[in-house]
Amino acid sequence: MTLIFEPLDGIGEVAPGDDVAALIAQHATLQPGDVVVVTSKIVSKAAGLATTRTKDELLADETDRVVARRGPTSIVRTHHGLTMAAAGIDNSNTAPGTLIPLPPDPDASAAALRSRLRELTGVGVAVVISDTAGRAWRVGQTDIAIGCAGLLPVDSYEGRTDPYGNPLAVTAPAIADQLAGGAELASGKFGARPVVIVRGADPAWLTEGDGPGARSLIRDEETDMFGLGAREAAVAAIIGDEPVPGLPADPGMSLQGIVDLAMSGLSFPRRQVAVDDGTIVVSVGEDDHIGAGVLAQRLVSIGIAHGTTVGVRITALQDD
């Protein structure tokens, strides 16, 4: 398979109310099976979303919850479910003093563009809406798909075998993200070419309808193992009093397991701790009060870390 990435020249500055699909149709001769990669910025510009509000105000509106914060940098989960620095708000390639947020529903925007392109050209294409994001474990950024239509965003290899006959269980190329990243390389950051046509896509990637959209690439809270930054997770576990977003419940962790973890390294007598009808009971002798307080805090914190509200009851140790 050979993929060809062709950036479009001549789009120019996009203004509120512009018909992005018409601009694309004017400058491209589309072919069936093409994938049209469009930066989110021109979608937001055409929708009139550019604003002169302060970044703090806009960030607050775009944020569902904070994942991590270090100095002026905030990594947040947006209302779309995306986890991005500054909620994807951008002040590059726009008029000084203005900020551009992400489109409110990128998948819907991709579907609308796809429908309009078919109306204008009579050609069925797929559409990807891209934006730039960092990676938690790697330096640098790459474009990812935040919206798509007419394309399978991910291709699961589960159930297939490799050339050696080994079964594949977790391999799942993120096709939409890979096409977005390739399009970014082809267009360049400063070439003023916000649209790239990708030719040669595997027909198996394409869908007759709009498909599941890029939202299917987003991990939900219950399967997100990195829903908070390391510092934020530690703080949430210590000061929280109930399960918090980003610390989903661990179905494999029992109250007895929480007790075992909490007592690790403590000298508090194990025989004075018991699980009784969903509550952890700590029996305190005359000299146990400080140790019991430490244990109670550890029990609650470890419970929060595992997405479980832990009830602790401290009682006086009964004499034998």
From TrEMBL:
Molecular function terms from GO: coenzyme F420-0:L-glutamate ligase activity
Pfam families linked to this entry: F420_ligase
Keywords: GTP-binding, Ligase, Magnesium, Manganese, Metal-binding, Nucleotide-binding, Potassium
Domain Coenzyme F420:L-glutamate ligase-like as annotated: residue spans: 12-49, 57-200
Top-level EC class as recorded in UniProt: ligase
Annotated EC: 6.3.2.31
Xref: SUPFAM superfamilies: CofE-like
Keyword RNA-binding: no
Domain of life of the native organism: Bacteria
PANTHER family, alphabetized: COENZYME F420:L-GLUTAMATE LIGASE, PTHR47917
Protein name: Coenzyme F420-0:L-glutamate ligase
